[in-house]
Structure prediction request, 348 residues.
Amino acid sequence: MAAGLANSLAEAGGDAFATMPGPQRAAALLLMLGEAEGAPIWQMLEEDEVKKVSHAMVQLGTLEVATVEKLIIEFVTKLSNSGGISSNFERTEALLLKIFPSDQVSLIMAEIKGASGKRVWASIAQVDPEILASFLRNEYPQTVAVVLSRVRADYAAKVLTILPEEFAIDVLNRMLRMETVQKEALRHIEETLRVEFVSTIAQTQRRDAHEMMADVFNAFDRQTEGRFLAALDQANRGSAKRIRELMFTFEDLLKLDPGSVQTLMRSIDGETLCRALKGANEPTRAFFMRQMSTRAAKNLTDEMASLGPVRLKEVDEAQTKMTEIAKDLAEKGEIMIAKNSAEEELVY
Prediction:
C-alpha cells in the first residue's frame, strides 16, 4: 500500500521532492490527512508497511512549502488522470512464475491465500448484517452455513435473524451437522466472497480522492488554502474545480435553513461566534443575527466592538471551528447542509 501511494506520486521539479523516497511521500500525505482522515488508510496497510511508513514519518523532519505543494498537486493530478489497474490471484501467480522458481512461487501464493482468507472474514465482520443477509439469501443454504460458521457468534445471530425464517432454520440445521470443510471448498467460498462481495462493498465505501483532498484543504488556514488552490489551478484546473465544489467552508453556512442556523448557534460558545463574525462581512453577520433576538444581536455587536483588533489567524480558527461543529451536527442528523447544486437549495 505504501508503495502504491508512492507510485501514484510521480517525480516533479525541485530536488527535495524529486529525491523524496516513496515511504516518505506516503508519510507526508498521511500527516496532512491527520488522524481521522488517515485512519482508513493506516488500517489497510500491512504490519511491515506500517513500520516502514512510521519510520519514514519520524525521519521526515520539516518539509518546505514548495515540496508539500508539489506533493499535493502531483497526488491529485495522478489520481484524477489514472484509469487504475486490476489484478487477481491468477495474474499475480503467472507473473511470479516468470521471475521465480515454481516451488518458491507455490510457497508465496500459499501464504497469500491464508492471509487473504483471514482478511475476507475480518472484512465481512465489519459489514452491516443487513447487507450480508441480503447477499446470502440468494446463496445455497450449505454455503451460508459455512460463511456463518466462520464469523463471530453474535454477528451470525444478527444475520440469521434477518434471513427468512424457513431459510434460516435450514442454515441452522446444516451448521449443526457441519463437519470439517475441505480446504479447496473453503478457498472457493473465500474467493467468491472477496470478488463478489467484499470488493464490491469496498468500492462503494471508498472515498473519492477529491473528497479526501477537500478535507485536507478545509484544514488549511485561509492563506495556505488559497496558495495551494491557485497552484493546483495551474497544474490541474479540473481537479481544483472539483475540490472547491467539495470543500465545506464558512461561507457555506449561509446555505443553512433558519432552524439549522439556530441549532448551530446553540452549539457554539459565545467567544467563538464573536471572533468568527468579527472577521466576517456585513451580509454574513446579518445572516446570523437574523436568527437571534434583538437584544442578543445587540449584545453580540457590543462584544465584537469590545474585542478590538483581532488577528486573522484567530478569525480563521473560530470560523473553522464553526464549520467543523456544523459538519458534526449534520452527521448526527441534527441540521441539514445543502449540497452545491440548485436542486438542493431551499425555497421559502
